[in-house]
């Protein structure tokens, strides 16, 4: 799956407080792994996620090897939107 880095960060910043923890719990992974997925660079903790970034507009194009974390984030955003 391809997405701009800018869009990936927009999604992360739109998530309600506690969503990173919720995603980590739901997927049985470390919170830092979720942060790394959204562009953090703290590889000391958590796992390095499989995505590749190519330079370009919008912060470049990110190719996500596994969209599971992104899909869970989008589900959370859809739930928040439906509640408003």
Tell me the number of strands: 3
Mean pLDDT: 87
Count of individual helical segments: 4
Rg is: 13 Å
User: Which consecutive residue ranges, at least 5 long each, have pLDDT under 50?
Assistant: none
Strand residue content: 5-15%
Shape: globular
User: How would a crystallographer describe the biggest sheet?
Assistant: 3 strands, antiparallel
The figure for the number of domains is 1
Strand order of the largest sheet: 1-3-2
| N→C terminal distance | 29 Å
Q: Fraction of residues in helices?
A: 40-55%
Written as H for each helix and E for each strand, in order along the chain, the element string is EHHHEEH
Q: Which class do the helix and strand fractions yield? A: alpha+beta
Quaternary status: single chain
């Amino acid at each position: 799956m391809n997405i701009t880095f800018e869009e990936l960060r927009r999604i992360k910043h739109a998530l309600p407080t506690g969503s990173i923890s919720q995603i980590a719990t739901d997927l049985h992974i470390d919170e830092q792994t979720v942060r790394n997925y959204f562009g953090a660079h703290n590889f000391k903790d958590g796992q390095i996620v499989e995505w590749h970034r190519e330079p370009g507009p919008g912060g470049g194009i990110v190719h996500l090897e596994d969209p599971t974390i992104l899909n869970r984030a989008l589900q959370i955003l859809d739930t928040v939107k439906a509640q408003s």
